[in-house]
Specification:
This protein is of the alpha+beta class and 549 residues long. Strands 1, 2, 3, 4 and 6 form a five-stranded antiparallel β-sheet that branches. Strands 5-10-9-7 form a four-stranded mixed β-sheet. Strands 8-11 form a two-stranded antiparallel ribbon. Strand 2 and strand 3 form a beta hairpin. The protein is elongated. The mean pLDDT is 80.
Length: 549
């Protein structure tokens, strides 16, 4: 299929790959040897994706969320990819909007800005006003983008089929990864999916013990106007957080430094709640998706990429943070294996040694100087080197923490990561021990202890009865026990023969010294002969066994 369809697009892709000098793809597309593929350098890979077009830029952005698969240098380079595409003319966008609305455009909006506020590879955003006066943002899908995505997905899967035939493709399960990425690309075409994600985040963050929910905003969705190709949401008036100007004092004594610290703490607490309590998190907190609004609140934008963590994974990741703080390589190894979904055997001692070497460079550093997201990237690198496959959501988790910490350090250079997370970790461990309802948890524990205290005497009594009545059987299997038994048997036999030979010699000597008749002399000679033969046989058997020493 790949070889017979999209011929013009194939030719274009081949030209781009040849032009950028990726030797492996040159061999792949010309039928050469592909046993040892090498990725292009991060900069070359980024340039290839940009030259291939907007869909491949989106593909690269998705790849940047997988530090469990790619080294940190590739993640950093691909994270800089932006949807730098010109907006579609208003005439085409107007037609697309009218096709999605249930009512005429003029009866729905009283005003629309024909100039796009932002444009991406999948859609673009316009500012508008509803007939009731509310300000909204309209995100409309680029006309014809679904056909372009389908065509490029076909090509991506075709290349994956070719690469999957090599050892490289099999080791990294290229085909399943291509399916995962193409499914994510297809999901980007359904704006109702992003709307549902935004609604769930709004519900989750509407209540918190860690921060004031009134200070964090997620745009409200207008469901009566939203479709798969049109997303209408609340307009949030503000600027990207890193572009915000804070006055030295806002009139109530709050300085710029205090305000920055408040926002930093708000972001950390909001994302820690998403990651470790809700298990549903905004997975793309880069600087362009966090706005500072004119009324002083902080907004999270673009909820199209989210991650999910189950309670067991959340617990393991909390313990992993503590293990990192404690520089505990052994515990990191154990937790990594608990996260792993790979059936391949792992050499635990090697994994522990790799983690120990990785963490050792942080021994003498102050905790405030440690870049925790970098450590998590390195943990994923060690797991990858040891052929440990982690769930795909680990990539989103690590990327989210890295983006969050990177944004916080740019916004507030004085940040101390440990000071921000220490009280949150303490509360998280308390929740793990007692749950969200500590009274009920304590009552359940008390009932378990009571049940154990009532059952234990009876179980001990049964155990003692079985011991005294000789009905208790122990089934033990010790490796190498048979060989030890055979060795002991051989040693006992040789010792018996040695005693027998010695006895015969001593008996023969006594008889010979007191022999008065020919019969006794003959018996002494026979005993000496038998002893000599047995002694020679014993020496021969010892020499033949090779166990003289």
């Amino acid at each position: 299929m790949f070889l017979t369809q999209n011929t013009s697009r194939q030719r274009e892709i081949a030209e781009i790959l040849f032009r950028n000098g990726w030797d492996y793809m040159r061999r792949l597309l010309t039928g050469g040897k592909t046993d040892e593929p090498q990725l292009p350098t991060p900069a070359v890979l980024r340039k290839i994706l940009v030259d291939l077009g907007p869909v491949y830029v989106k593909f690269g952005q998705l790849m940047s969320t997988r530090p469990d698969l790619l080294p940190a240098s590739y993640i950093e380079e691909l994270s800089t990819l932006q949807d730098d595409v010109p907006p579609v003319p208003w005439a085409e966008i107007e037609v697309a909007i009218r096709q999605q609305l249930k009512k005429p455009l003029e009866e729905t909006f009283s005003k629309i800005n024909f100039q796009a506020v932002a444009a991406g590879s999948i859609g673009q955003i316009h500012r508008a006003t509803l007939t009731d006066g509310r300000e909204v943002a309209i995100k409309v899908q680029r006309p014809g983008i679904d056909a372009i995505v389908a065509q490029d997905i076909s090509l991506i899967q075709g290349v994956a089929d070719l690469v999957a035939r090599s050892e490289f493709g099999q080791n990294y399960e290229i085909k399943s990864l291509a399916n995962e990425f193409t499914a994510a690309l297809e999901a980007e075409l359904d704006f109702t999916r992003e709307a549902h994600f935004a609604e769930q985040l709004r519900r989750n963050l509407s209540a918190s013990k860690w921060f004031d929910p009134q200070q964090l905003v997620i745009a409200e969705i207008f469901w009566d106007l939203t479709t798969e190709k049109l997303l209408v949401m609340e307009w949030l008036d503000g600027v990207p957080l890193l572009s915000a100007n804070f006055a030295e004092s806002n009139g109530n004594g709050v300085t710029s430094e205090i305000k920055r610290q408040e926002i930093t703490t708000l972001l950390f607490r909001a994302f820690f709640q998403q990651l470790y309590i809700d298990g549903f998190f905004h997975a793309d907190p880069h600087p362009g998706n966090i706005f500072y609004l004119k009324d002083g609140r902080v907004a999270l934008l673009d909820c199209g990429m989210v991650g999910k963590l189950d309670p067991r994974t959340q617990q393991i990741l909390v313990e992993m943070l503590l293990a990192i703080v404690d520089i505990d390589a052994q515990r990191c190894s154990q937790l990594t294996l608990q996260l792993s979904d790979s059936a391949q055997p792992v050499i635990l001692s090697r994994l522990e040694n790799d983690y120990d070497r990785m963490l050792r460079k942080y021994y003498n550093l102050d905790l405030s100087q440690i870049n925790f997201s970098q450590i998590i990237y390195e943990l994923l690198q060690v797991a990858r080197n040891n052929k440990i496959r982690l769930p795909s959501n680990m990539g989103l988790y690590a990327k989210t923490l890295a983006n969050l910490e990177g944004l916080a350090r740019q916004f507030n250079p004085e940040i101390n990561f440990l000071d921000e997370v220490k009280p949150l970790l303490t509360d998280l461990f308390r929740r793990q021990l007692l749950g969200n309802r500590p009274v009920e948890s304590l009552l359940r524990t008390a009932l378990d202890i009571k049940s154990l205290s009532l059952q234990s005497p009876r179980q001990i009594e049964l155990l003692l009865d079985r011991v005294t009545s000789e009905t208790l059987q122990w089934n033990l299997s010790v490796r190498g026990l048979d060989s030890i038994r055979r060795t002991l048997d051989d040693s006992a036999n040789r010792l018996s023969f040695s005693v027998l030979v010695g006895s015969l010699i001593m008996g023969a000597a006594i008889i010979s010294s007191k022999a008065q008749t020919a019969q006794l002399s003959w018996l002494s000679s026979v005993l000496f002969a038998v002893a000599s033969l047995l002694g020679l046989w014993l020496i021969f058997s010892i020499l033949r066994s090779g166990r003289l020493r």
